[in-house]
Write a structure and sequence with these properties.
The complex is a heterodimer of chains A (298) and B (227).
Chain A lengths: L1 E8 L8 H11 L7 E7 L6 E7 L3 H5 L2 H9 L4 E5 L2 E7 L3 H11 L4 E6 L2 E7 L2 H7 L9 E7 L21 E8 L2 H10 L9 H14 L4 H11 L2 E8 L3 E6 L8 E4 L3 E5 L15 E3 L7 E4 L1
Antiparallel strand pairs in A: 1-8, 1-13, 2-7, 2-8, 3-5, 3-6, 4-5, 9-10, 10-11, 11-15, 12-13, 12-14
Chain B lengths: L1 E4 H4 L1 H9 L9 E5 L16 E5 L14 E5 L14 E4 L15 E4 L12 E7 L13 E6 L15 E4 L10 E4 L3 H13 L10 E5 L15
Parallel strand pairs in B: 1-2, 2-3, 3-4, 4-5, 5-6, 6-7, 7-8, 8-9
Antiparallel strand pairs in B: 9-11, 10-11
The chains are: A alpha+beta (298), B alpha/beta (227).
Chain lengths: 298, 227
């Protein structure tokens, strides 16, 4: 079991409340996944800048002087915003890959959670309520976001094994289910140069989508591909810089409910997660069809 | 009319209050407010009371029902009326997967659509779906009737025994050993009664009947010793 929540806003006036609404949805899904939680939020963008969200188990040492060290390594300006075990590094656009290599040298134990113009990912082991509190997710605004509460099956209960996974710029994926061909697919994708950091099945799903999109597929086409190339059970909810997508495997034994109004599109593993959204009484509420790709773009 | 606020008073209190109403109760009508998608609402009832749930529910609403009439003014999550023995469950909206699974008796009416595995392993329950049903419905269905006014998804009635399936719309595919069968006068009568009891506006003559071809391994007497 795991819990998924997602919110894609159409109404700009709701954007400041995105984190608040997602936090309520996430906490409702605690009993589907109490071991770890995470959230990907697509927030403010600055022209010509890219954000890297990094995480460390020893944040005080890791983040101390990191902006200066990275600025020196890249010979450019870098700013840092520390939030508990995570920090968001702001670097000039086009410097993300270089920054990633430099960070691996400067702070070998630190992990890069995400990179992109809009995305920030926060995830940790612990109850969803505590995780959301540590990062003050309630205070975050944005255009769309995806959250996950995890009950681990395929890999250990660690920060690294928590969702969302991001394997490409501004991309993220959360998963309810388990993939059975992730080992062979991981080897194939690695041979093609795709970066996969963990032993987790979901990261392979995320990397698969990244690889498809690198080879010219749209988000919709990449999601279609999962139905052919991934074996196992999955409900995937994915985010891109301006899009939000959902796909379920053909067996569709993992639960999913969606709701749409003029103001938003929402996803929940259960209807419970959606009950406090504004105007839910009059929303179009439906169960997404098996083997059918849904996506929305701004 | 007894009104129960689920959010304020909790699930255990609700189910124990409803389960206590066997025998000569005069509290025969109940209304549950603030359901908010909660699980296991009105389960294990065993008296002829009427329960109305205002709003949508989560998993296993009205499970193991006997005698009671449970009406949901909303949609239901997975496993509504699972293992029902008798009574009536009416869902005004849609039902998620395995609605009426393993049901032994009673009537389940879904006024919207039901998703996958509706009536899986049904053992005598009658299910009437006003809309469409998803894939793998009535898998291993043993007895009872599944009536669908709309369309059926893939693999209807796979490996079924003696359950009957009546579908008015299209069937995407039939499961292993499930075939279309002749609609005889007695089937028209069964269907007429079910449609009337389910408040469904449809003519029995518009439906096709499906059921077991009885060709699978387990139907062959030569294999009887294998069990």
């Amino acid at each position: 079991m795991c819990g998924i929540v997602g919110l894609f806003l159409k109404d700009k006036s709701l954007e400041p409340k995105l984190g608040d609404m997602l936090t309520d949805m996430l906490i409702t899904m605690t009993d589907r996944g109490p071991d770890s939680a995470g959230i990907a939020i697509y927030g403010s963008e600055a022209d010509g800048r890219t954000k890297l969200t990094v995480q460390s188990d020893a944040p005080e040492e890791a983040f101390d002087g990191l902006d200066g060290a990275l600025a020196e390594a890249l010979s450019t300006d870098v700013s840092i915003r520390v939030i508990d075990t995570h920090a968001v590094l702001d670097v000039p656009a086009g410097k993300a890959e270089e920054a990633r290599s430099a960070l691996a040298e400067l702070r070998p134990g630190m992990r890069v959670m995400s990179a992109g113009d809009a995305i920030e990912i926060y995830k940790e082991v612990g109850l969803p309520e505590k995780v959301a509190e540590r990062f003050d997710v309630r205070g975050m605004g944005g255009t769309h976001g995806i959250g996950h509460t995890r009950m681990a099956t395929e890999s250990a209960v660690t920060t690294e094994g928590a969702h969302p996974f991001s394997t490409g710029s501004d991309q993220c994926l959360v998963h309810n289910g388990s993939l059975s061909n992730h080992n062979s697919l991981r080897r194939k994708l690695r041979r093609d140069g795709v970066r996969i950091e963990s032993q987790n099945d979901t990261e392979v799903g995320a990397a698969y989508l990244t690889w498809k999109m690198q080879n010219g597929a749209t988000l919709g086409e990449a999601l279609e591909g999962t139905l052919e190339d991934l074996d196992g059970f999955f409900n995937f909810v994915v985010g891109t810089k301006d899009g939000f997508g959902v796909v379920r495997d053909p067996i569709a034994c993992k639960p999913a409910v969606m709701a749409e109004t003029d103001q938003y599109v929402a996803f929940g593993s259960e209807y419970r997660a959606l009950v406090n959204l504004p105007g839910i009484e009059d929303a179009k509420v439906w169960e997404p069809e098996p083997a059918t790709v849904y996506f929305w773009n701004h | 009319m007894q009104t129960y606020d689920l959010e304020a008073n909790g699930l255990r209190g609700l189910n124990s209050a409803l389960q206590e109403q066997n025998g000569g109760t005069n509290k025969t009508a109940w209304e549950i407010v603030n359901a908010k998608g909660s699980h296991a609402i009105a389960v294990g009832l065993n008296s002829p009371i009427e329960v109305t749930v205002k709003g949508s529910t989560g998993y296993y609403c009205a499970g193991m029902n006997q005698q009671a009439t449970v009406k949901v003014e909303g949609s239901v999550g997975p496993g509504v009326a699972e293992n029902m023995m008798s009574g009536t469950v009416i869902v005004e909206g849609d039902a998620s997967q395995y609605a009426g699974a393993t049901g032994h008796g009673g009537l389940l009416v879904i006024k919207g659509n039901a998703s996958s595995r509706c009536g899986i392993s049904m053992k005598g329950i009658d299910i009437v779906v006003h809309g469409n049903i998803g894939h793998m419905c009535a898998f291993m269905g043993q007895s009872g009737n599944l009536v669908v006014l709309g369309d059926a998804g893939d693999a209807l009635g796979d490996s079924c025994y003696e359950a009957r399936f009546f579908v008015r719309g299209s069937v995407k595919s039939l499961g292993a050993d499930c075939i279309e069968k002749e609609m005889r006068p007695e089937h028209i009568e069964i269907l007429k009664d079910l449609l009337a009891r389910a408040g469904a506006d449809a003519k029995p003559e518009e439906f096709k009947r499906y059921g077991s071809a009885r060709q699978l391994y387990n139907f062959d007497v030569d294999n009887a010793q294998a069990y």
